[in-house]
């Protein structure tokens, strides 16, 4: 029996389930970038260091990547209704703990709890929504579900910035509690319990070894800068754990017939190449937000409301282009659309290299909108190419891997750009400070003055300049990530329109 099968509710009950599932989909996606525009407030109240900011995003994303592959197995083994309601309760617990946090570690723990629940809520919400529809409508409804996820990512920073500026940053999490309670009420009353008649199989060794490798790598990247990399015993342990996990996974995959991430998926050229491109898309999608909002909020001094609003052009371009590209006529070769999307994203990141401390809001809005349009065009097109030549019986498993590629791309991308950002900022600060001598005008004036406020002001100015140059360097890394996968596009096979 399918673990996500639902008993036949009334039409009103099915509609209520569908809307509640869509609301849960939006809730778990909007909470990912929600703190983005309010980082200055969160840092100040929690005494959070600059290199800990990335944990706000990677904690949520990494936790969701861990639980997402086992969501369907949990529902089949323990029951869809039970698992879904428990995930909602855990998500609400994460929201409450975020509002009560007083230290960076406590806040990161709350984000881990939210992310772990999100990884279960995402696929099960999709299953619930699709099962309330006739089979003929499910394919088109999948576009709506993806658009809702993208809408949550697009609107999260603006909602968080607005709420934080008016009521305080903790209220952005308080607002999620009544929404979660409403979803629990609807699901508790209308969702029937279903689970598999027999215990479903799952490759826990493959899943566990792969997860160990990813967690070790994530912790290494997140903690390395703070602990001076391999001079720290903790970093060495995390590196060994990651290497061991990936080694065990590789051996297990080569020596067993059935396992997590089956071999058959890697025999389809279109799927493999598209998954790599989708990984690069994830590498750009959220790290851009993780760089842009702190640049506007902390370096340029924009208020959180303005910072959040400047993410809206990117979000509007992303969602609008996605909906248009998803309805593109079949006669148009999607490989051409994929190439156009990759080129547009790379061009938008190239425009970001021209940001200046003296600019107004328009360059950010234009570059963000173009990048959003490129990503929105790319997502449905690369998905169509990925599954066009794949055996239909493998599509459910392939969908999980395909989505994991985007999630891992984003979480590793955020960790990598944060690491390089702080390394580059320190190097740039030293380079700029090295040119400041008593023989220059500003240096001579300060040398003649013993006033420490003047020295502190100069150091703050140098730090701001170094940080801004480092942000531009990370936009270059994101641009190179898209350019690196561009040569893969010509190797994609033309999809069969009948597929």
Automatic annotation (TrEMBL):
PROSITE patterns: MFS. It is a multi-pass membrane protein. Signal peptide: none annotated. SUPFAM superfamilies: MFS general substrate transporter. Pfam families: MFS_1. Residues 17-498 form the Major facilitator superfamily (MFS) profile domain. The chain crosses the membrane at residues 55-76, 83-106, 112-130, 142-159, 171-192, 204-221, 227-250, 271-290, 302-324, 336-355, 361-379, 400-421, 441-459, 466-489. It is found in: Cell membrane. PANTHER family: MAJOR FACILITATOR SUPERFAMILY MULTIDRUG TRANSPORTER MFSC. Belongs to the major facilitator superfamily. EmrB family. This is Drug resistance transporter, EmrB/QacA subfamily.
């Amino acid at each position: 029996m399918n673990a996500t099968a639902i008993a036949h509710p009334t039409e009103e009950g099915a509609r209520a389930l569908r809307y509640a599932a869509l609301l849960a989909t939006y809730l778990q996606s909007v909470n990912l970038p929600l703190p983005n525009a309010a980082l200055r407030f969160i840092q100040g109240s929690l005494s959070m260091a600059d290199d800990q900011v990335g944990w706000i995003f990677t904690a949520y994303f990494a936790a969701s990547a861990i639980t997402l592959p086992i969501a369907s197995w949990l529902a089949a083994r323990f029951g869809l209704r039970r698992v879904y309601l428990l995930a909602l309760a855990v998500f609400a617990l994460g929201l409450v703990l975020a509002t009560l946090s007083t230290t960076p570690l406590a806040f990161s723990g709350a984000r881990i709890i939210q992310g772990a629940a999100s990884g279960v809520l995402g696929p099960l919400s999709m299953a619930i929504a699709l099962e309330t529809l006739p089979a003929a409508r499910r394919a088109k409804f999948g576009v709506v579900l993806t658009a809702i996820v993208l809408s949550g990512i697009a609107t999260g920073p603006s909602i968080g910035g607005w709420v934080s500026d008016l009521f305080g940053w903790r209220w952005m999490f308080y607002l999620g509690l009544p929404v979660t309670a409403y979803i629990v009420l609807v699901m508790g009353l209308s969702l029937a319990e279903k689970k598999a008649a027999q215990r479903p199989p799952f490759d826990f060794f493959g899943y566990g070894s792969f997860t160990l490798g990813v967690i070790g790598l994530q912790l290494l990247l997140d903690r390395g800068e703070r602990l001076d990399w391999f001079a720290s015993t903790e970093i060495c342990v995390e590196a060994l754990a990651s290497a061991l996990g990936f080694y065990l996974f590789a051996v297990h995959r080569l020596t067993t017939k059935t396992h997590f991430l089956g071999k058959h998926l890697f025999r389809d050229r279109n799927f493999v190449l598209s998954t790599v491109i989708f990984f690069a898309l994830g590498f750009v999608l959220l790290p851009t937000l993780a760089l842009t909002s702190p640049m506007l909020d902390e370096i340029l001094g924009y208020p959180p409301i303005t910072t959040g609003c400047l993410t809206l052009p990117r979000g509007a371009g992303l969602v609008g282009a996605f909906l248009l590209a998803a309805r593109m006529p079949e006669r148009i070769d999607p490989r051409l659309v994929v190439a156009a999307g990759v080129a547009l994203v790379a061009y938008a990141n190239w425009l970001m290299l021209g940001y200046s401390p003296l600019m107004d809001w328009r360059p950010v809005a234009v570059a963000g909108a173009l990048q959003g349009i490129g990503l929105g065009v790319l997502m449905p097109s690369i998905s169509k190419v990925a599954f066009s030549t794949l055996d239909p019986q493998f599509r459910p498993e392939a969908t999980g891997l395909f989505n994991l590629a985007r999630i891992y791309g984003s979480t590793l991308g955020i960790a990598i750009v944060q690491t390089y950002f702080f390394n580059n900022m320190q190097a740039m600060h030293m380079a700029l400070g090295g040119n400041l001598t008593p023989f220059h005008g500003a240096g001579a004036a300060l040398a003649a003055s013993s006033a420490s406020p003047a020295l502190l002001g100069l150091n703050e100015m140098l730090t701001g300049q170094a940080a801004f140059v480092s942000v531009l360097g990370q936009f270059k890394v994101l641009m190179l990530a898209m350019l690196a996968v561009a040569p893969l596009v010509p190797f994609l096979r033309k999809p069969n329109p009948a597929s």
